[in-house]
Amino acid sequence: MPAATTGLAPSPALADSQGQISRISRIALGDVIHRSARRFGARTALIEGEHRMSYGELDAATNRFAHHLLGLGLPSGARVGMLCNNSIQMVVAMLGIQKAGLVWVPINTALAVDAIGYILAHAEVRHLVIDTALHAKPALRALLDDTGVAPLLCVLDGDTPPAGIPTVAQAIAQGPQTLPDVAIDSGQLALIMYTSGTTGRQKGVMHSHASVHSVLLSNMVEWGSSPERADVWSSVLPLFHCGQHTVLMSALAVGGTLVILRGFDPGAVLGAIERHRISVMVGLPMMYGALLAQPQRAARDLSSLRLCVYAMAPMSRTLLLRLLDEFCPNFALVSGQTEMYPGATIFEAHEQRKRFGSYWGVGTLVNEVSVMGDDGALLGPNEVGEIVFRGPNVMLGYYKDPEATANAQRFGWHHSGDLGKLDDDGQLIFLDRLKDMVKSGGENVASIKVEEVLLRHPGVMNAAVVGLPHDHWGEAITAFVTRRPDAQSPLTEAELAAHCKAHLGGFEVPKEIVFLEALPMTSTGKIQKFELRQVHRGYYSRR
Predict the structure, then answer these.
(1) Does residue 388 sit within a domain?
(2) What is the pLDDT of residue 4?
(3) Residue 83 lies in a domain
(4) 260: which of 176, 479, 527, 538 is 20 to 30 A away, CA to CA?
(5) pLDDT for position 526
(6) pLDDT attached to residue 105
(7) Which residues, other chains included, contact 450 with Cβ-Cβ below 8 Å and sequence gap of 6+?
């Protein structure tokens, strides 16, 4: 496997006659802010509460952070972890890591401690940027102490950092403000972003500078952004996910302004739209439903909104039409996955009133999307198969897992693990998942991981976890369980829910636990999850 794929070292770069690495034609994520600062220097790049940072200030701060990391002696390609919620300091650290030629390893802050520990060990992280509030949690602090990972703290308003541990603010208070002279090749590993695998262990998805950068220009065009328009973008979704990260980088590349919110509160989001004149909103269907229902909405001036992008799942016809009439005149569904940096497909704004259902639309400008049969043959209109992609934004592969990489890239296409078909107009329709993955509230949850926890309980005979349609969550994690007949006392839902909360991240805990006399099985003893999804599809609508 090439060095860029293993992440152990950067791939070879062109050198001039003096042996200096050429920057003439490279593609590097850190150069996005460097170049934008030269053009939009005084323009506001980031807003968080009362804090504002211009492009020039962001460029200088990220350069200083990069120099700080290089001063620690970190070699090119070293992994730097990040365990942070949205903040300006998080963005500064992230871009500084890229400018230093290091590998950014973002970690979902809602994961259980053992899952965080697995990522740190698997990615061989030795330095971690972490929020002060998270570092204060005893279990996380003990993990860092035990593993020898060196923390560097993001200190937010109201936080009190412990003595003796450096902070991001200290790192950017001094040092050179110039772009570090670091060798970065376009195909070099830029980030490892962990996503839940169907085996229950997270998979490290590797992307190069070029693969992420390739989709930024596509996003700008698809979403109608330009330097002259100077859009103000929302940053509500977590930046440790690929969806909000691609929004951040696209906005910075085109000279937009990002309004950073630390979590989703409908009232706060409506206030931010009005106050900062947000023109491009990015959220989940459940978020838009909550915004529509918020009592203060009618009193807010939302006229600045020109485009609302939704992701992860389609919206019901009723909700979508209300949003188009009452919230924003243009909505578009953008899909992708960590392995296929978003957007990979777009259900365009002009289609929203024409077609309803599980439409994912068409491939974006840099992507080719098709439907494939088991034998690798591409299928025609209305034939059902696996959704596959080609494009420059496909991952390098799974870190330390060449077998899984080869399986995902067989027949020369990236395999999404989703089932779909193309209609007569070439519009992609999502049908089901081949992988046992539930997409709930913006998070991917491996059903097998939840099942393994359920099966650890002595009162459980068998368990199956599926995602069922839910107006708020998109898909609600739902556990179907059979009890052990020899248990001393009947297992209760509350008892099993407490067991799950003790062993899973909060977003992984089932929303409902349903006890059945028996689970549907094939003749070979395999649980028929498709039947569970079909029979119980209306479970939450009936409640």
Answers:
(1) no
(2) 40
(3) yes
(4) 176
(5) 62
(6) 98
(7) 465, 477, 479, 500, 504, 508, 509, 510
Task: Extract the runs of DSSP E, i.e. beta strands, from 338-487.
Answer: 340-347, 359-363, 368-372, 385-390, 397-398, 414-422, 428-433, 437-440, 443-446, 460-470, 474-483
Length reported for the chain = 543
CATH number at residue 31: 3.40.50.980
Domain extent at residue 473: 437-535
- What is the value of pTM for the model shown? 0.83
Q: Where are the alpha helices (DSSP H) in 258-348?
A: 266-276, 285-293, 317-326
Letter for the amino acid at 476? A
What's the gap between Cα 188 and its chain centre? 21
Q: How far apart are CA 405 and CA 1, in angstroms?
A: 11
Question: What is the Cα 378 distance to its own chain's centre?
Answer: 29
| E strand residue ranges, 49-202 | 51-54, 79-83, 103-106, 127-131, 150-154, 189-195
Instruction: Quote the CA–CA distance of 413 and 2 in Å, as a whole number.
Output: 19
Cis amide linkage into residue 77, ω under 30° from 0: no
Q: Measured between alpha carbons, how far is 170 from 395 in angstroms, rounded to an integer?
A: 34
CB 107 within 8 A of CB 82: yes
| pLDDT tens digit sequence for 121-164 | 999 999 999 999 999 999 999 999 999 999 999 999 889 999 99
Q: What's the pLDDT band for 286 if we cut at 50, 70, 90?
A: confident
* 258, 235 contact by CB (below 8 A): yes
**Total tally of structural domains belonging to the chain:** 2
Collapsing DSSP to helix, strand or coil, 345 comes out as: strand
CA–CA distances in Å: residue 225 to residues 95, 255, 354, 485, 493: 22, 9, 24, 61, 49
| Six-digit token string for 4 | 């860029």
* 464 belongs to a structural domain: yes
Beta strands at 257-260 and 232-235: parallel, antiparallel or unpaired = parallel
* Tokens (6 digits) for 217: 């220009």
Q: Are 131 and 137 in contact (CB under 8 A)?
A: no
> Is 320 within a domain?
no
121 vs 123: CA distance, rounded Å: 6
Question: Which CATH number does the domain housing residue 490 bear?
Answer: 3.30.300.30
Tokens encoding 159: 């936080």
Of the candidates 175, 208, 241, which is a domain's last residue? 208
Instruction: Write the CA distances from 515 to 67, 195, 250, 346, 478, integer angstroms.
Output: 57, 29, 46, 39, 11
> Whole-angstrom Cα distance, residue 118 to residue 296?
43
Whole-angstrom distance, CA of residue 374 vs CA of residue 81: 38
